[in-house]
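User: Please fill in residues for this 154-position structure.
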């Protein structure tokens, strides 16, 4: 229904930026979640098995946090592979959005939080150009997720 607003050049630079952080998918995915749970403790309430963890160190060591971090990065990686094909992109994002909206009841603002933290991490590790190249992708993801949530009655 919606087309992606990225040019071919933007798709290429976004992929280049993403590849840098995806090389260490598990560590970087974990770092993103740990930062989210630490800076936004209310987000932990959605994860019953993370609830009791208070220290960042404890979270970093947790197989469940690491596993979910990797899962998040894998899902984004699938989307990044399809930035030039909105049908395929939405084919990945739509079921994910529906599941988070209807089954998991995750507040959609948390997607913006996690995307912003990914951008922060990119900037810290690889500089502002890297972050800027990926910003449009996170905006696409969040925009489409918000639309999916609306359709799900949020």
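Assistant: Residues filled in for all 154 positions:
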């Amino acid at each position: 229904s919606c087309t992606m607003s990225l040019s071919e050049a933007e798709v290429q630079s976004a992929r280049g930026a993403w590849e840098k952080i995806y090389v260490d998918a598990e560590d970087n995915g974990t770092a993103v979640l740990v930062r989210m749970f630490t800076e936004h403790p209310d987000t932990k309430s959605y994860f019953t098995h993370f609830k009791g963890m208070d220290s960042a160190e404890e979270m970093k060591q947790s197989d469940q946090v690491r596993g979910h971090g990797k899962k998040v990065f894998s899902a984004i990686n699938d989307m990044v592979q399809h930035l030039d094909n909105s049908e395929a992109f939405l084919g990945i994002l739509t079921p994910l959005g529906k599941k988070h909206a209807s089954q998991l009841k995750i507040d959609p603002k948390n997607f913006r939080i996690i995307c912003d933290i990914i951008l922060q991490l990119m900037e810290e590790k690889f500089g502002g150009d890297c972050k800027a190249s990926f910003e449009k992708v996170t905006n696409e993801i969040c925009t489409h997720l918000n639309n999916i949530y609306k359709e799900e009655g949020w």
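For context: The chain is about 75% helix and 0% strand.
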